[in-house]
Amino acid sequence: MSEYGSSIARHRRLPPLAALRAFEAAARHESFRKAADELAVTPTAISHQIRLLEAVLGLALFVRQTRRVALTDAGLRLYPTLRDGFDAFARTIADLRPPTGRSAVTLSATTLFTARVLLPALGAFQALYPGYDLRLHASDEVVDLGTGVADIAVRYGAGPFAGLVAEPLLADRFGIVCSPRLGLSAPADLHHTPLLHTEWKRRAGAPDWRQWARLAGMDDLRVAEGPRFTDDGHALQVAIAGHGAAIASLVLARAEIDAGLLVHPFGPVIDGATYHVVATPEALAGAEIQAVRDWLKAIAVAA
Q1: Backbone phi, then psi, for 169, in 5-degree steps?
Q2: Taking the model in full, what pTM does it have?
Q3: Which of 95, 172, 223, 262 could bridge to 256 as Cys pair (CB 3.0-4.6 Å)?
Q4: Tens of pLDDT, residues 144-173
Q5: How far is 104 from 108, CA to CA, in rounded Å?
Q6: CB count in 10 Å sphere of residue 134
Q7: Residue 176 and residue 271: Cα distance in Å, rounded?
Q8: Is there a contact between 222 and 259 (Cβ–Cβ < 8 Å)?
């Protein structure tokens, strides 16, 4: 008897698919919020679906904690089955789709790296690899490359990047940037210049005015004063407008410095971490992923 006529198939009783998807994403991320971002719904919707699933099963699947959620014993039993099942669905559906004649690659990177480094070089990629469609996924959240959201990513930091092949692209450096209209020529000029601050979202211990002043031997610099921004791109825009000086990545501000919109008037320069290109070993076997990696390495040389 075929599986379609089996007693198991005839009497299959499953919870709603939306609830199972919500559970799998939340279990993988250990976060309702990140699951909501992946599935393009609200965290409240994720919570509702999981409570529905728990009601259907009559079991608690998560222990709710202050900043994260943890799986119960029942959740730990259910998660790998659903994860492997959804992975199998994705592989089979991908195999069923007819070839389009073009290969699409999704590259994930932080918002500022995408805007400042990748977008200006996108035309070069299209000229070099006209048979590939490159899609840019800009996010300051780390993307799990095992979910299919992206095929390859640029990551900042020393690693380790578990389960991924990583190659260094370029080392970051931080220093003062400002509009040339301010006419800064020596560190003493900063006593009369607004200091722009970025409250870094991504990098613990990222360079700031306090660290720069210590290296410059300027203990009297009033490093706690000045406007604050939660987005480093906004701080750069305010610096370009001539409203102060910022500590910024000299790599990510390169285009504005080359265009004369910003200057790096003096040191010291603070060494940052390294950008890496990362992908799974399986993904790197594909010619399209290798093409994106090679393009990224060429960008790094130019930077």
Answers
A1: -100, -60
A2: 0.61
A3: 262
A4: 887 778 888 998 887 777 888 888 988 889
A5: 13
A6: 19
A7: 13
A8: no
